[in-house]
Amino acid sequence: MLTPSQVRLGWSAVNKAEAIRLVGQVMVESGFISPGYVDSMLKREQVSATFLGHGIAIPHGLPEARDLVLQTGVVVVQFPAGVAWSQDDHARLVVGIAAKSDEHLQVLANLTGVLGDEARSQALASTLDIAVIVEALNGPVMEQEPDLELPAAPVPGGHSLQVLSPSPYGLHARPATVLVEVVRRFRADVTVHHEGRQANARSLLSLLRLGAVGGTTLTLTAAGDDAAAVLLALRDAFDASLGEGAPASPTASPLPTVVLDYEGTLVAGLSASPGIAAGPVWAFQRQRLEVDEWAVDAAREHQLLDEAMAGAAAELRQLHDGFMLKAGAQRAAIFKAHLELLDDPEMLSESHGLIDTGLSAGASWRRVFEDRAEGLAELDEPVMAARAADLRDVGLRVLRPLARVLEAEPLFPDHPVVLLAEDLAPSDTAKLDPAMVLGLCTAGGGTTSHTAIIARSLDLPAVVAVGPSVMDLRNGQHCILDGDAGVLVVGPSERDQKKAAHQRERIRTKREEEKLERYRPAITLDGKRVEVAANISEAMEARKAVDAGGEGVGLMRTEFLFLKRDEPPGEEEQYNAYRTMVHALNGLPLILRTLDIGGDKHVPYLSLPAEENPFLGVRGIRLCFEREDLFRTQLRAILRASKEGPVRIMYPMVAMPEELAKARAITESVRREVGADPVETGIMIEVPSAVMMADRLARDVSFFSIGTNDLTQYVLAMDRQHPVLASQADGLHPAVLRMVDLTVKAARRAGIWVGACGGIAGDPSGAVVLSGLGVTELSVAIPSIPAVKALLRGISMADAEGVARRALECGNAAEVRSLARDLLARKETKA
């Protein structure tokens, strides 16, 4: 209860801070708080505004300062002349709150009643009678249940609680998600009442449609076995502002986070290629979704919807976990909100109900989420209306597997753009003009997807797996693509744009320095050398590799000679291509990988049978044996070219010693036919069986080359093109690194060297860890060569080995990347 001794009339203050200190002084004098609580009240203003409207403010401390509250209570200080509380708001009646329990809620409930009457608020701000303020804020005394100490329930057999919607933005996605999570822990039904409307507290969408802005009164009613307990938990949650402005839990992430200091809207994804680009976006729109309206098997449609929901939930959990490491729990919370939208009981119930009427799963879900999104978009509160985009993002994630994807020929702009796409296939690259592409951003894919490989080979920043809503951006809208942080910044501020320009200039300067030093060998600070070679796909790239500082070609993907044609290349065509590369390298080694087609590369003229799982079927060396005619023709061309320079042959997808023995026997037969000298041969280490048999395989080859992209998907059982799993298929996962470690140890015992030619070889963290594990050759995309060499020259092998040892003991790829980033950050700071 507010007593006359807790009210002060006719005071003045020069600013908000002084007013809060004066109010705090009265709270100390009333025995409500320790003096230190006043500082927390001032800090609260930095987190969220406490101005309610009509000249009334309610300053109070942060939740973590509750131990400084000696007794629950409120005081009122009147400032008739007004105190500037924000740029446009002036407070004339300031209610200081010390909240140890919930006894102040009735005063606040009465206060919000005053707020609805502007004339009454003005009268309280100018009255000379303390009793008028006491009566207005105390109101009628209500009986309270002794076990709960809550206001009496307005519904039979239930309980109720009055709270304030969190400031400054009200009950938007993040705080509403917290509310839903609290309620779902209890066996109780909770309804949120606001201005004549009500919402199911288990439904995020229902809560968002309330449009409850910051500081407005909400009445929570509960019924069920846990009604009393859920309201107690909700009281604590609202006292903590439902997480708004509260500091992130120190245990939320054990890893250091990257500070994403952007003011624009962040669209989170995965970093696929480093660098920063800024400019207009352009949608590489080659797909649209179409669903059947009706279906005959309702049971099957229910199952399809449930499966699509589960897949979308898995995607969102991965995005949440990845973004939390980058930007902390609070900014990652939006993906938790998306998860709650997926689990919305009202949307699920309505969608399944429509399926029972005969609609297909896709048509039912599309009708429900589009209807809800339109409703949100019509809300007057801009923050709430903006959630319509979130709902459409979630809706499209679910809809995609329920729909047919129709292909259309994409249009291309005539000016440089940040290209948006669902994903990019290898065939799409032929259609791209690199001069017109500033960067790539895709809805799907992973760090080893085609888009990532394309971006690194073209030296373009890229972010992948950002979700389908990115395709809704308007062509021409200005954005920043941060390939280092893995985010797209929509609507960047002037400060954001200046920051991006500065970062681009810094990167440009660094690249120029690396380019000047590109021919220097990659010798670490303690004198250990790592060769840095190039991955190439066509003859003309051999010269580019040399010009970039490459110390040879560590992987020539010969299958690209076989793609996009109606018949296989003949011996002469292949010979001319290989000889061109040998001459361009001018004595540097050339590793030619024999035909590796299958899995994700479809070649009609090979007439291969359809396979349920092509990645576990006829591909790599198995295809070479299946089509020995093509294999022998290719070997003839390679061995003829070997007469003109150092050529090495590498067999792909070798899984067991007998495959290697057969490949070597065929090669030896062809060598004798063409009269060539013996050449060095090696194998790709891409499957777990090759790792486990590495000691046997090492006896019959000159080298191993670890294909980390395929090794990762086979070790982790994750298709690197899978729309849900691709983002987790990280070659720096400790399980993959342990395979690398076993391979290197087996090779050392046999006296042969080990290279790596997968995506992580060109990744800064990957280059550190692989080198530390004993990989002595890194074969990377041509644009990455100078940077990888410069990186290795800036560290000691002892440091890399230390990181690698610790990496083997990590629990996931994020921890490994953190170790490597810490090392590189320390070296850059010293530099």
Would you write up a description of this structure?
By secondary structure, the protein is an alpha/beta fold. 42% of the residues lie in helices and 17% in strands. The strands form 5 sheets. The protein has an 8-stranded mixed beta sheet. Strands 20-21-22-23-24-25-26-27 form an 8-stranded parallel β-barrel, surrounded by 8 helices. α27 links the parallel β26 and β27. α9 runs antiparallel to α10. It starts with 6 loop residues before the first strand and ends with a helix.
Summarize the model shown.
About 40% of the residues lie in helices and about 15% in strands. It has about 850 residues and is α/β, with parallel strands linked by helices.
Secondary structure elements and pairings:
Elements: E1 7-8, H1 16-29, H2 37-47, E2 51-53, E3 56-57, E4 73-84, E5 90-98, H3 105-115, H4 118-126, H5 130-138, E6 159-164, H6 173-183, E7 189-194, E8 197-200, H7 204-208, E9 217-223, H8 227-239, E10 265-268, E11 270-273, E12 276-284, E13 287-290, H9 298-327, H10 329-342, H11 345-356, H12 361-377, H13 382-385, H14 387-399, E14 404-407, E15 417-421, H15 426-429, E16 437-442, H16 450-458, E17 462-464, E18 478-482, E19 487-490, H17 494-516, E20 531-536, H18 541-547, E21 553-557, H19 571-585, E22 590-593, H20 621-626, H21 628-641, E23 647-651, H22 657-674, E24 680-685, H23 688-692, H24 694-697, E25 703-706, H25 708-716, H26 734-750, E26 753-756, H27 764-773, E27 777-781, H28 785-793, H29 797-808, H30 813-830
Parallel strand pairs: 1-4, 3-5, 12-15, 15-16, 16-17, 20-21, 20-27, 21-22, 22-23, 23-24, 24-25, 25-26, 26-27
Antiparallel strand pairs: 2-3, 4-5, 6-9, 7-8, 7-9, 10-19, 11-17, 12-18, 13-14, 18-19
Helix pairs in contact: 1-2, 6-8, 6-10, 9-10, 9-14, 10-14, 11-12, 12-14, 18-19, 19-21, 21-22, 27-29, 27-30, 29-30
